[in-house]
Design goal:
Layout (H helix, E strand, L loop, with lengths): L2 H7 L14 H12 L10 E6 L2 H8 L6 H6 L2 E8 L2 H9 L4 H11 L4 H25 L3 E5 L4 H7 L5 E10 L19 H4 L4
Antiparallel strand pairs: 1-2, 2-4, 3-4
Bound molecules: flavin mononucleotide.
The site of flavin mononucleotide has 11 residues, from strand 3.
Length: about 200
């Protein structure tokens, strides 16, 4: 299937088939794919926590508002986290980069202050989300990005030393009764004329 067809098919799945769980092999492939995610100056300020343990998943589900049922039904929950401490990030991730890239970081990112630097780090993690969602559908997997999580509770439940959870993604197989499936509910997007300029 080409990318446009995959884009039409992927959707934020609301109901998963609890009887059909993702295989260990596919989970291992997803781990390697997300490791290869791109980031500005290859800064990689992230941690991806793959949760399959049912008991932990249930505790996380209870801290996930409207996403609780999806998380309980699905086989895999991936938590995307960002590095917490700028000094640690600079020591581990930035100092090892080529000089020109360090200069980019110093002049274009760090000079804007801590809040802007943290926001830039989070942007890198969000970029990996788009990449991950595309990877999932290319493997025949349904997925849902979820900002509807209690970040503080997630941090307490997970071994997240030095990282802050930002959002989570469920990965599995949609239930045939999911009314959000694009075959049932067509995708809602602005028209090209409203969002794309060709000059
Ligand atoms: C960053 C982000 C956070 C989202 N958080 C949630 C969420 O917590 N729960 C949910 O059911 N959908 C969530 N969504 C799904 C969006 O509502 C969905 O992508 C959007 O309505 C477009 O629909 P589609 O992805 O099915 O095409 C989120 C999407 C993104 C990109």
């Amino acid at each position: 299937m080409n990318f446009l067809d995959l884009a039409k098919r992927r959707y934020a799945t609301k109901k998963y088939d609890a009887a059909q769980k993702i295989s260990t092999e596919k989970i291992e492939t997803l781990k390697e794919i997300i490791r290869l995610s791109p980031s500005s100056i290859n800064s990689q300020p992230w941690k991806f926590t793959f949760v399959t343990d049912e008991s932990l998943k249930k505790q996380l589900a209870a801290q996930s508002y409207m996403n609780e049922n999806s998380i309980n039904d699905v086989g895999l929950l991936v938590v995307f986290s960002v590095m917490e401490d700028i000094a640690d990030f600079e020591k581990r991730n930035i100092s090892v980069l080529p000089e020109g890239w360090i200069a980019f970081y110093e002049q274009m990112v760090k000079s804007n202050g801590d809040a802007a630097t943290k926001s830039w780090m989070e942007n890198q993690v969000y970029l990996s989300l788009g990449y991950f969602l595309s990877a999932c559908i290319s493997m025949g997997l349904d997925a849902t990005p979820m900002e509807g999580i209690d970040r503080k509770a997630y941090k307490e439940l997970l071994p997240q030393n030095g990282y802050n959870p930002l959002f989570a993604v469920t990965v599995g197989y949609a239930d045939a009764s999911d009314t959000m499936h694009p075959d049932v509910l067509p995708k809602s997007r602005f028209e090209q004329s409203e969002i794309i300029q060709s000059i």
